[in-house]
Amino acid sequence: MTAQTPTPPPYRPPTEAPASTAPSEHALGPSEHAPEPSDHAPEPSDRSAAGPSDAVESSDDAGWPVRGTAAGVGYVALPPTAVDARPNGPTRLIVAWPGFDPPRTAAAMAAALPMTGVPTWRVYLDLPHSDASADGLDLLPTGLDSQGFLTDAGVMAFGTAVERAAVLLPAVLADLRRDLGVPADPVALAGFSAGAAVVLLALARQDVRVSTAAVVAPVVAPARVARSVEKRSGRERSWGPAGAALADRLDLSRRADRIADSGAALLLIGGARDRIVPGTQVTALRDRLARCGAPAVEAAAFRMSHALAAAPGTEARPPITEAVRVDGVLTDWFRERLAEPASRPAPPVSLHLTGSSS
Question: Which end of the chain has fewer CB atoms at under 10 Å, N or C?
Fold first, then answer.
């Protein structure tokens, strides 16, 4: 079923963007020339009832976002609509995950970070939640800064969602390639917060080929988040052995060598006002990856806090200013690596003929 909603807004190049070569850090603050948030967030059509083998319909309104299921995971897919660029390599698909903080669902993240200017499919996946952990959004109602993260159930909900998302990625890609008609070539990955942890874990696992990736406010180590919450709340965590072991397993800084060995170009984005993932953690990960021989790793910083959408962050809503800026840098990053300017027909030539008429 196709959607009956407005097309995504046209691509507007960001006013500031990170360079594309050696490891570096960029202080990208608010700009008076930054594009304003859109007044209309695209609502995806409901294809959740369709099975993963049901192909996306191809029609003259193929530019509409669609919703489906791949390997049991819900997704929102935005078709390539950029008119000023075309793919310059084999990557035709960007897969992205939301976080436990706004945006917290595939639909909300697709509205916050649509990356409209990238001429590939952008597919946003919901984070999987196990029956054992119930719905992580309920256990952590205000996000990772919730005191629920100090409980065993809270860290288990986070860790289980991150690990399952990474483990399911090969099966999800197989269904997406069949549904969307995308070839089995390297993919690009993107993620926010917990979703950024999924990206880093997927790079470390190396189950799929990844050409480039970008992460926003990545949760590098759950224990660091817990310490931050403990300081602000005055409470201590009550993790059991299983929760503590899971958090230790997801200390992704210890997998820096595997992440670097994946060969993917990687952009790390942090927030100077982020209390959950301080910008120093982002730059520290950048430096560690560079020391491990990552071929291309960069860091960018914004004067922003953790969330990239208004609370509760579960529905598609117009993007907030911070999301517009991050979307611009993500778009620029992926365009530089996955796209080239679209060829345009030569302008018509006016002929001025002179001569006598009979």
Answer: C
Q: Token match 């820096």: residue?
A: 256
Residues of the domain holding 101: 25-341
DSSP annotation string for 264-333: -EEEEEEETT-SSSBHHHHHHHHHHHHHTT-SSEEEEEES--S-SS-TT--S--PPPHHHHHHHHHHHHH
* Selection from 63, 58, 145, 74 nearest residue 108 by Cα: 74
What residues does 301 pair with on adjacent strands?
Answer: 27, 270
Write phi, then psi, for 211 (nearest 5 degrees). Answer: -85, -40
Phi, psi dihedrals of residue 353, rounded to the nearest 5°: -95, 140
Q: What does the pLDDT look like over 129-172, one tens digit per residue?
A: 755 444 555 667 668 877 889 999 999 999 999 999 999 999 99
- Would residue 152 count as lying in a domain? yes
Distance CA 18, CA 301 (A): 10
Name the pTM for this structure. 0.80
Report the CATH number at residue 317: 3.40.50.1820
The residues that bridge with 220 in the sheet, in sequence order, are: none
C-alpha angle with apex 299: 286 to 325, nearest 5 degrees?
A: 150
Classify residue 234 by burial, with Cβ atoms within 10 Å: 0-12, 13-18, 19+: exposed
Establish if 135 belongs to a structural domain: yes
Lowest mean pLDDT: which of 37-41, 188-192, 298-302? 37-41
Q: How far is residue 4's CA from residue 6's CA, in Å, rounded to a whole number?
A: 7
Query: What per-residue confidence (pLDDT) applies to 117?
Result: 96
Look at residue 358 and tell me if it is in a domain. Answer: no
Query: Whole-angstrom Cα distance, residue 90 to residue 88?
Result: 7
Tell me the DSSP string of 228-278. Answer: HHHHHHS---B--HHHHHHHHHT-GGGGHHHHHHT--EEEEEEETT-SSSB
